[in-house]
């Protein structure tokens, strides 16, 4: 495999996966903090900075080894788990479920958002179509760098304020609504 293909593969697969696992782990931390456990917050793990969630073996070595060993047919990895002290949760038995569900729920929410964007066309294409000619040309010139701009916004914390916190709020309300019947049964 040549160097250009490796870079393309990393851009197409590794960076989005890194973003997904970062949001997943941060969601566990946000949920734990919301329900009373500040362990992850004290350790700086309630963040969208991917560096804080990278496990050298699980995030880098294992996926790279599997990618090379299987020719890209099978890749698996994991992030450094966010520490949660379930004893610090206000209602440990109930709240630990919410903390555990927060990661997969964030992945589901991201999948829904990205899927919706695919259905309504490429977001940049829609934006270019709606903007006046001069602004549309400017946006189309920076389009190839869009993913890197988004990753920079994530690392800088802008995404957490304008996207992650509102998304987590909506996700928690949706989960409350969907799981309310189960919660009523358990009491």
Write up this protein.
By secondary structure, the chain is mainly alpha-helical. The protein has one domain (about 5-120, about 155-185). It is built from 8 helices and no strands. It has helices spanning about 5-35, 40, 55-70, 90-120, 125-130, 135-140, 145-155, 160-185. The N and C termini lie far apart (about 55 Å). About 20% of the residues are buried.
Key words describing this protein structure:
8 helices; 187 residues; globular
Helix tally? 8
How can the largest sheet be summarized?
none
- Weakly predicted, low-confidence segments: none
**Total beta strand runs:** 0
Radius of gyration (Å): 19 Å
Distance between the termini: 57 Å
Summarize the structure.
With 187 residues, the chain is an all-alpha fold.
Helix and strand topology:
Blueprint: H1 3-34, H2 39-42, H3 56-69, H4 92-119, H5 123-130, H6 133-142, H7 146-156, H8 158-186
Helix pairs in contact: 1-4, 4-8, 5-6
């Amino acid at each position: 495999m040549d160097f250009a293909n490796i870079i393309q593969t990393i851009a197409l697969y590794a960076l989005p996966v890194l973003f997904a696992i970062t949001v997943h782990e941060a969601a566990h931390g946000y949920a734990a903090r919301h329900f009373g456990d500040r362990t992850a917050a004290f350790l700086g793990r309630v963040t969208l900075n991917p560096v804080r969630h990278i496990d050298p073996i699980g995030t880098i070595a294992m996926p790279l080894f599997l990618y090379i060993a299987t020719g890209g047919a099978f890749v698996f990895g994991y992030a450094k788990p966010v520490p949660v002290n379930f004893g610090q949760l206000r209602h440990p038995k109930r709240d630990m479920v919410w903390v555990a569900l927060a990661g997969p729920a964030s992945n589901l929410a991201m999948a829904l958002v990205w899927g919706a964007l695919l259905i309504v066309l490429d977001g940049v294409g829609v934006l270019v179509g709606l903007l006046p000619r001069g602004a549309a040309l400017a946006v189309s010139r920076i389009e190839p760098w869009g993913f890197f701009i988004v990753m920079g916004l994530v690392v800088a914390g802008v995404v957490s304020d304008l996207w992650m916190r509102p998304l987590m709020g909506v996700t928690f309300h949706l989960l409350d609504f969907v799981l309310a019947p189960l919660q009523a049964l358990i009491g």
